[in-house]
């Protein structure tokens, strides 16, 4: 802000002011500052590395996994861990480690698609509600309240049983519980960002509503949106796992960690690893995403304080 | 204050109506015709289309949807939840029986979370950076990120299968056999409470840390109050407000979590009823359970709001 007023007040001295400014405030590389704050905490770095590793694991599952996810060895059913099957085999003789590796594909794809879908829908509705205000806003917010009053797992269960049990069905079932959160977040953000002078300026210049919403307001809501999206990755992955565990999510034989926990649960006495290992995978992935979200919040929040008007 | 309560009550009622309509419509979209399932279950050897129609008429499923909805909603307000299509039991009575089980576990877990969460958060914040703080942070992170069913399975494995200390499934009401009930409830209550404890502890910790940097806390130290007084009178009192608002979410977590916990531990509560009804397409049961669960959540968040106003006099009711 100060730079602009200075140069306006002293139009002829523009160059000098710039030099002065540079001496007073050494240029901060935004990206480097972001990286520095983001990785300041060791646990965030660890979380970030684990996320990268699991993403790589999902992409290169065909190369890494010692066996296929559906490869059955009926002579070697419920085998104990050994050198060929590092974590043993399940009730159909499928290699547990390979199925966990392939399971990362379901977890990540459901997580990413769910978060993108719910964020897109929620942001759009939130923008409209916050910009419109009045009756439209109260109707949208009351409906949002109602959506958020239903325990999310219950709502997912109902929606999941309406849709077919593929990745898409589960994605919609989970996304429907997440998008009201974005509506609330963006609605609140819009209400405060709207007070800024540049929105007023845009309006007085006769900019189209959509242009003000997407070019002026939305970019200033991005920081909290990104943080929320990262945090919701974990929630989405956990919800998918719960649905699959209850038998209303991704159906077998597809390797999904939640469903694998349920299958393995029957053999808890004999082969505890069958249900414990996939659950551990869920926890590690969700934990890592939450750490990344924490780091992002630390790195993005100070900037947020600078831009919002209150 | 009174107008505020009335307005919040109307608001709560509107939410319930919207939810009930949404659930009613959603349930009608479920695949599978309950009448056909009922017929295949009763194994009637010969079914004529007339018999199917008669049965459909008998269950009231041949009327227009708005009529079915209005009828259901009015009956529900009178406390009549109809009968299960599949097993012909009175849903109201069945919920009455099962709600006790779910409430016993849910309320215990909620209260434990309400007490333990803030205590852990306060201790953690006051001893910031020390061993206790790190321990609480790790536990809180596990509580938030570990899937509830997995924690349940782990507990069953260690305390039930390995150590043989606790029964691994089922539920007994405390007034039937207190000791058995206690042993059976320990693990489910812990699993249900873990999420609320973790979330509340984290929220309390950051809220206490924020309050600790306020000017009036420095003043309290400066005027020579002892540590106990500063923490109890000044820090805790001011940092618990954001924690109270969180309790609505916690209740939602406990109520929704009952579905998973009751499935893992085979407990005959509302959550198990929900999953069973869902797998057998028992419309009226799913409808009733969802509305009851939502009602619990809406009413409790109303209580939380009022409590919040009572704790923080700065909030205006107008």
TrEMBL record, chain A:
- Cellular localization per UniProt: Cell membrane
Per the record, its GO cellular-component terms are: plasma membrane
On whether Cell membrane is a keyword of this UniProt record, the answer is yes
Membrane-topology descriptor: Multi-pass membrane protein
Where the protein is mainly located, per its record?
Answer: membrane
Keyword field contains Transmembrane helix: yes
Q: Which organism is it from?
A: Sporobacter termitidis DSM 10068
Name the keywords, alphabetized: Cell membrane, Membrane, Transmembrane, Transmembrane helix, Transport
An example GO biological process term is:
transmembrane transport
Q: Where is the ABC transmembrane type-1 domain?
A: 104-293
Write down what this protein is called: Peptide/nickel transport system permease protein
Family, as annotated = Belongs to the binding-protein-dependent transport system permease family.
Q: Which Gene3D superfamilies match?
A: MetI-like
Spans through the membrane: 43-65, 106-131, 143-162, 168-186, 243-261, 273-292
Instruction: Give the InterPro entries listed for this entry.
Output: BP-dependent_transpt_permease (IPR050366), MetI-like (IPR000515), MetI-like_sf (IPR035906), OppC_N (IPR025966)
**CDD domains, per this entry?**
TM_PBP2
From TrEMBL, chain B:
Name any one Pfam family assigned in the record: BPD_transp_1
Q: Name one GO biological process term.
A: transmembrane transport
Q: Which PROSITE patterns match?
A: ABC_TM1
Localization in the cell: Cell membrane
- Please state every residue range assigned to the domain named ABC transmembrane type-1: 99-304
* Keywords for this protein: Cell membrane, Membrane, Transmembrane, Transmembrane helix, Transport
What kind of membrane protein is this, topologically?
Multi-pass membrane protein
Which branch of life, at top level?
Bacteria
Q: Name one GO cellular component term.
A: plasma membrane
Q: Where are the transmembrane segments?
A: 12-30, 103-123, 135-158, 178-198, 250-268, 288-311
- Coiled-coil ranges from the UniProt annotation: none
Q: What is its main location?
A: membrane
Q: Which family does it belong to?
A: Belongs to the binding-protein-dependent transport system permease family.
Protein name (database record): Peptide/nickel transport system permease protein
């Amino acid at each position: 802000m100060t730079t602009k007023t200075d140069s306006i007040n002293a139009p002829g001295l523009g160059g000098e002011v710039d030099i002065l400014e540079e001496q007073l405030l050494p240029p901060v590389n935004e990206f480097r500052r972001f990286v520095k704050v983001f990785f300041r905490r060791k646990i965030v770095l660890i979380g970030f590395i684990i996320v990268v590793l699991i993403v790589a694991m999902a992409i290169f599952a065909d190369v890494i996994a010692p066996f296929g996810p559906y490869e059955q060895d009926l002579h070697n059913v419920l085998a104990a861990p050994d050198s060929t099957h590092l974590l043993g085999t399940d009730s159909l003789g499928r290699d547990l480690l390979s199925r966990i590796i392939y399971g990362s594909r379901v977890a990540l794809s459901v997580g990413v698609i769910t978060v993108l879908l719910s964020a897109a829908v929620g942001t759009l509705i939130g923008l409209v509600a916050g910009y419109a205000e009045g009756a439209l806003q109260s109707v949208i917010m009351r409906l949002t309240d109602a959506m958020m009053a239903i325990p999310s797992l219950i709502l997912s269960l109902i929606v999941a049983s309406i849709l077919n049990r593929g990745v898409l069905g589960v994605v919609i079932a989970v996304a429907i519980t997440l998008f009201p959160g974005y509506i609330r977040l963006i609605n609140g953000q819009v209400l405060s960002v709207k007070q800024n002078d540049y929105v007023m300026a845009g309006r007085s210049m006769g900019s189209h509503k959509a242009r003000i919403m997407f070019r002026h307001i939305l970019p200033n809501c991005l920081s909290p949106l990104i943080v929320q999206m990262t945090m919701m990755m974990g929630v989405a992955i956990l919800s998918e796992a719960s649905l699959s565990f209850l038998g209303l999510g991704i159906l077998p034989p597809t390797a999904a960690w939640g469903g694998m926990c349920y299958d393995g649960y029957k053999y808890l006495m004999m082969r505890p690893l069958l249900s414990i290992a996939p659950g551990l995978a869920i926890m590690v992935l969700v934990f890592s995403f939450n750490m990344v979200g924490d780091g992002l919040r630390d790195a993005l929040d100070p900037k947020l304080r600078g831009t919002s008007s209150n | 204050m009174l107008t505020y309560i009335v307005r919040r009550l109307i608001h709560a009622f509107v939410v319930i109506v919207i939810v009930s309509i949404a659930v009613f419509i959603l349930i009608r979209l479920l695949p599978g015709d309950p009448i056909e399932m009922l017929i295949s279950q009763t194994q009637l050897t010969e079914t004529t289309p007339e018999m199917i129609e008669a049965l459909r008429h008998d269950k009231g499923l041949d009327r227009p949807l708005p009529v079915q909805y209005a009828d259901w909603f009015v009956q529900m307000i009178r406390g009549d939840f109809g009968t299960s299509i599949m097993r012909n039991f009175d849903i109201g009575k069945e919920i009455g029986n099962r709600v006790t089980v779910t409430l016993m576990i849910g309320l215990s877990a909620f209260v434990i979370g309400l007490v333990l969460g803030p205590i852990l958060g306060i201790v953690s914040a006051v001893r910031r950076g020390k061993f206790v703080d790190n321990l609480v942070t790790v536990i809180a992170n596990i509580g938030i990120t570990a899937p509830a069913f997995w924690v349940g399975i782990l507990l069953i494995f260690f305390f039930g299968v390995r150590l043989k200390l606790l029964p691994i499934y089922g539920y007994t009401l405390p007034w039937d056999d207190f000791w058995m009930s206690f042993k059976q409830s320990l693990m489910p209550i812990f699993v249900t409470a873990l999420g609320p404890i973790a979330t509340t502890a984290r929220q309390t910790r950051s809220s206490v840390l924020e309050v600790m940097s306020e000017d009036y806390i420095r003043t309290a130290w400066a005027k020579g109050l002892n540590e106990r007084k500063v923490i109890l009178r000044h820090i805790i009192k001011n940092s618990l407000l954001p924690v109270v608002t969180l309790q609505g979410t916690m209740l939602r977590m406990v109520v929704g979590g009952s579905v998973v916990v009751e499935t893992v531990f085979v407990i005959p509560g509302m959550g198990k009823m929900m999953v069973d009804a869902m797998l057998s397409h028992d419309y009226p049961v799913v409808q009733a359970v969802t509305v009851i669960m939502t009602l619990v959540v809406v009413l409790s968040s109303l209580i939380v709001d009022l409590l919040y106003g009572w704790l923080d006099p700065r909030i205006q009711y107008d």
